[in-house]
Each structure stands twice: as structure tokens, then as C-alpha cells.
Amino acid sequence: MPRQRPPGDAMTRLTSLVAPPAGGGNTVDWDSLAERYPRGFPDDYKQFVRVYGQGVFDDFLSVCPPIQEVYPNDPGSTVEGLTADAEFTAQEEEYDEPELLIGWGQTTEADLLCWRADSPDPNDWGTVIWRRQWAAPECWSHFDSGMVELLGRYAARDLPEHWEFDLPYDGCRFVHDRDRKRLRALKIDPWGPEPVAGT
Question: Which pTM was predicted?
Fold first, then answer.
């Protein structure tokens, strides 16, 4: 049964919970990626990349771009690179259909966040989390929701069975990789009690 969801609804919720970067997201020519990514991408991911771009939530959960804009020498930190990791992991962990996984995110605990591409329409894909610290089959969690909807649950701390946090600030914070790179050079920590202006 189709799992169509209006991507704008999930994005509205996410932006109400987490401020997008002041400089916007990434600029991507999606048509030019058709050969590299023949299965395409869900609309909510394209919207996320435009609004937020590649970056990190809470110094913990990274969302990867289809092509690197900030770290061109790190091709592994792309959807293509994470998908290779996800397929290898799925084979090792006896996942039922490794070829269906497309990786889009990872955590500092080496967890993977993926789509399960079981439909020709990317907007019908559900999401999958693989927890490295858990044993099979419990390490695999499936969600009948898109990526942005899942990130909205993360930002609302509505996934306590997966992750718990002890942060020096309230709520959830996202920092684009370009800002993290700039702040690192300035020796400024963007994860302190107060957000850094301009991020």
C-alpha cells in the first residue's frame, strides 16, 4: 500500500523544532545525478538538502548529501558511500534484502539510517535504523515514515528506545558542515549552551 506523505507537513514540523542554517542548505542539480543515482530520491530529502543541507544534529546524527559540497575528498560521507556501508552491514547482519537499503545518515555511535527502497516511487520508501550496539534481529528498526518525518521525531526526542541525550542546551540543534568546518578553524564549539551566531 502506498505510503505517500506530503513532504511539506513533515518539513514544517522539523523547522519548528530545529532552526535551519542561516546560510541555507546545499545547491544540488538533481537531474545531473540521475545516472549516478538511478533509483532517485524522495521529495522530502531534496527539500531537506535545500533547507538544511549536509550537517549534524546535536553533534551526533549526520545527514549526508548526494555529492560532497564541503569535504570533496571524503566521498564516503555521501549517500553513495553510506549505501555501500549499509549493504555490507546488511549482508553481515543477515538483513532480508540488503540491496534495498540506501544510506542517508549515520551517528557518532556508528548507527546507520537508511531508506528501504521497496517501491519504484521514492516517496513511498520507509526508513530503517541499524543500531551497531544491538544484536540481530533487534538491531534493525523499520519506520513507515519518510526521512524528514523521522528526523522530526528525533528532534522531538520521540525515539527514546533508540537514543537518549544529556546536552548542555534545550531542544535540538543542527549545524551545517560548512559552519562546523569554519568554526573548527576558529576553535569555536557550536555545541555549547548557547548557539553560535550565524550558524
Answer: 0.92
